[in-house]
Amino acid sequence: MAEECTPTYIGRVRNHFHGKWVCGLCAEAVKERQERDPDLAVGSAVEAHAALCQRFNSTVRLNPKLSLASSMRDIARKSCQNRATGTSCTASGNASASACCGAGRAACCALPYV
Q1: What is the pLDDT of residues 63-79, one digit of tens each?
Q2: Domain of life of the organism in this record (predicted)?
């Protein structure tokens, strides 16, 4: 809170984020998104973050248990995809995540704790 919300400051923030008034936390999230995908424009990164916030507000806040189940599903999916690019799936000949996580998943990258 060291910086006051003067009209000049507000103008700078809006110019940088294509007319959007973005808080400091969201600004950092947008910067991080752009670091992960350098070809992404600022406006697109702001829109992606706004969509993420909308999804959070419509799921997590309304039904935390359902959100936890969805998050666990996403973690398991990413884990399997990471394994598909690692040694466990490529050693058995399944190089793609779709082949690995399909019907033959138990043969190449079974999740030990699921």
Answers
A1: 887 778 888 898 999 99
A2: Eukaryota
